[in-house]
């Protein structure tokens, strides 16, 4: 049963009984008078509120050592130049196909070849796949 359900997820088909289970599930609300539970309002009240100054000078959660502390935020000049270009949007395959390959910069041309090869491989695999 579980095997057929996972196969159904792989192909985007969900059996009717699984869909009914998903639709009827809801989250349970913890009772306020319950003692000894995990998490809850009591734990939230115990955590100290961080000051705005501390939030703007420290990277919280970046410490990986047991005995260490979270690192301080450095000025922008202390970080490498490539870091500021990490979130730049790169063109997708459909955009690259609309442009003339002769006028593309080298990095975009390299990306176009990689994405085009990947899409052709996926199409060929889909055609030759066993159902």
Automatic annotation (TrEMBL):
It comes from the Eukaryota. It holds the Pfam family Ribosomal_L37. Its main location: mitochondrion. One of its GO terms (cellular component) is mitochondrion. Keywords: Mitochondrion, Ribonucleoprotein, Ribosomal protein, Transit peptide. The keyword Nucleus does not apply. It is found in: Mitochondrion. Belongs to the mitochondrion-specific ribosomal protein mL54 family. This is Large ribosomal subunit protein mL54.
